[in-house]
Write a structure and sequence with these properties.
Layout lengths: L3 E2 L2 E4 L2 E4 L7 E3 L4 E3 L17 H6 L3 E10 L2 E11 L4 E5 L6 H9 L5 E9 L2 E2 L5 H6 L2 E4 L6 E5 H22 L9 H14 L10 E2 L5 H15 L3 E5 L7 H14 L5 E6 L12 E6 L2 E6 L2 H9 L1 H9 L4
Parallel strand pairs: 8-15, 8-16, 11-14, 14-15
Antiparallel strand pairs: 1-9, 2-3, 4-5, 6-7, 6-9, 9-10, 12-13, 16-17
Helix pairs in contact: 4-5, 4-6, 6-7
Length: 321
């Protein structure tokens, strides 16, 4: 199987590649884009013309035998994972196990090379899609280390993201022969105020520059606010608990719980069980050395907390798991 890098696209029988220095990839407003890449709009609604029967019989999100390299080093070594609407999955593991790599690959980070396997979203293999195309289909990544954007207020950032998303959705519906109303500035202001109240955010937050001078908790709440406004159907939260004190963790967790529902699948990536005290997962997966080595229900996180990663690693090495 030919290896594929994100950024490669077919055009007239030729492969076109966009290059990007490592570490310069970030989401800017209306989707997941990279410096030097063209930014598309984000439509979280997904396709409007898919057969409903097929969607009912197809997993919403499915990763199969995923192998991923970066700079010729294999990071993911055959990952399998299925997430359906309404499910919350926790992915745990020690540093360097491949958790964040998986998150970036799902979102479409251009530095990673998929050498084998597939990622299917509502039955569609998304590996050939650009990052912004994935975002339009309803895939969202909350970053572990959100980017600071001086000079751009939260309100302007979110207004561009949400209006582009909704207007792109309206255009797709109209192209399919339907009718839709594009989002007005008044409607956006009402929606932003509603979501900020849900996340217990002061109105002054909207006038501040994006992530500039934000505390760890404020940065994570800004990410969850984006999720609330974009309304994805597949949300990946990469170590949302990182750098948070107990109070900030509780507030962020309450926000995630308020947004999670029957139409959204959630993948929580974390090192520690403490996040799962606030956000209760349906399934827990443990990753080591680029593979998911153990799976179970919420009780698995408590077992891991008691056992520790080193003992688990010894059991995996000995073939006991």
């Amino acid at each position: 199987m030919r290896s594929r890098k994100f950024g490669e696209r077919k055009s007239g029988g030729k492969t076109l590649t966009k290059s990007l220095p490592k570490g310069e990839w970030s989401r800017v407003g209306n989707g997941s884009i990279a410096d030097g890449w063209s930014a598309g709009t984000t439509d979280v609604s997904g396709p409007q013309t898919e057969d409903k029967f097929d969607l009912m019989s197809t997993p919403m999100f499915e990763i199969e035998n995923l192998h991923v390299n970066i700079e010729d080093k294999e990071i993911l070594k055959g990952v399998n994972l299925t997430i359906n609407k309404g499910e919350v999955h926790a992915l745990m593991g020690p540093n360097g196990s491949g958790k964040s790599t998986l998150a970036y690959v799902i979102a479409g980070h251009p530095s990673y090379e998929v050498t084998e396997g597939s990622i299917r979203y509502n039955g569609l293999d998304i590996l050939e899609l650009e990052a912004d195309e994935r975002a339009r289909k309803g895939i969202f990544l909350a970053f572990q280390y959100p980017t600071v954007i001086p000079g751009v207020s939260m309100a302007n950032f979110l207004r561009m993201a949400v209006t582009n998303t909704r207007n792109a959705r309206a255009a797709e519906i109209e192209a399919a022969g339907g009718s839709a109303t594009k989002m007005t500035p008044r409607e956006f202001r009402r929606l932003m105020k509603e979501k900020m109240a849900l996340l217990k955010m002061d109105d002054s937050f909207a006038t501040r520059y994006l992530n500039e001078g934000f505390s760890g908790g404020e940065k994570k709440r800004a990410e969850i606010l984006q999720m609330a406004l974009l309304e994805p159907t597949m949300a990946v939260l990469d170590e949302t608990d990182s750098g948070l004190d107990i109070d900030a963790l509780r507030v962020v967790s309450e926000g995630v719980n308020a947004l999670a529902g029957p139409e959204m699948g959630v993948l929580l990536i974390t090192h520690y069980q403490r996040l799962l005290n606030y956000i209760k997962p349906h399934f827990v997966h443990i990753m080591m050395d680029g593979r998911i080595v153990q799976e179970g229900g919420p009780e698995l996180a408590h077992e891991l907390e008691a056992k520790g990663y080193e003992l688990l690693r010894a059991e995996v090495t000995a073939g006991a798991i």
